[in-house]
Fold this protein.
Amino acid sequence: MGRLVVVSNRIADPRKTAAGGLAVALGEVLNNSGGLWFGWSGKLVDEAPPGGEMPVHVQQAGPVKLATIDLTKEDYQAYYVGYANGVLWPVLHYRLDLADFDAGYIEGYRRVNQLFARTLLPMLQPDDVIWVHDYHLIPLAAELRALGCQQRIGFFLHIPLPPPLILAAIPGHDWLMKGLCSYDLVGFQSHADHEHFCHYIESEAHAQHLGDDRWRVFNRTLHAGAFPIGIDVQEFQALAEAPEGREMYERMRREYSRRKLLVGVDRLDYSKGLPQRMRAFRELLARYPETRNSATLIQIASPSREDVSAYTDILHELESLCGSINGNYGELDWMPVRYMHRTVARSRLPGLYRASRVALVTPLRDGMNLVAKEFIAAQDPADPGVLVLSRFAGAAEQLKEALLVNPYDAESTAAAIHLALQMPLEERQQRHQALLTTIKKSDVHWWCDSFLHQLAQTEAQETGTPWLRL
């Protein structure tokens, strides 16, 4: 394989451990190939410079080149806020009711993808392999192909892909999905998402299945498959044993020595099912009196897009539910819910996970949800906690030994939490060992290697394909 070129909305410096396991895994391959990581700088300008092209900011991170461009405020509002997060995010999470189908947004979304393509193309080398990430950049391959790009291009969708009828609700969905078919390899988090894609291109684009996850569609051959993302298990286990992780663990054990600790760690997002989780916890306290003055839920909900009304609404609902539960069930020396609307340092999370008897990972829909895998990695194998996991998280396909729940059903979720709190040590150990084996086998390095290996195997594609224009 030639040089790896990673393209994403935002980039990360792979030398910084705070960047997380994904950046570290990509950084290893980028380091080996002397690669390039390209994306938005995170900075906004009032208007584009004369000529319309944004200057490229380049810095060297060891053998890896990091290249970014700024965006105008107008482009940011249309591409990022309007279309990516106002249309694609809710629809791909099955929330048509929250999508803002403003026809003007799609123009800005395409304009920024064209800007990315024009800026990236002169930096490419003939034997480069390009890996594009996530829903912000679905049309990028089509725009690169239209400029004459011949290199292999892969795409990975980090969030879910819904069934064809939900996708078809997006104005211009045919253009969007044709853009997705411009890649040589398209990867999804789960087999369910992969099947939804296959059903779409079969029913809407009359694709021909060639076998072995290969399709003939729009006069070219496309490969598609499920590549469930993992975590760096060894790195996260090392964090649990590091000073900050140990200090957090010891502090939690001291402060909650008389309680059974439950933990939830999420971004504040309507896809995470946080109000439903609180209702299930309230149901637990109501139906199982022995959990009162015994079980404490620590819920961390880090801020996310708070300028959007849907997020303000869920923030107020969550705060109201937490206050109601504490008011109705709390005692002078016990609060059922400890709610924090802020981000906790990643280095401290393993200690919190290890001190917890139960993790509640109950999204309404999630591409994967790596909190579930981090919780497993952080546990003490001799006395592990129990994972309560939504069946609608992509992780549920792999983590079958977790207690799988329907987050919309408060009563059954409460029953599962109660079961987790009462689970005997031997069963907890057996479940944890099976889950740990799974996440070690399919860690982030496996994910990265398997996707790039598959991309390298894709055959050369036809050139000169006329790409659909708006």
Q: What stands out?
A: The chain has a mean pLDDT of 93. The chain is about 45% helix and 20% strand.
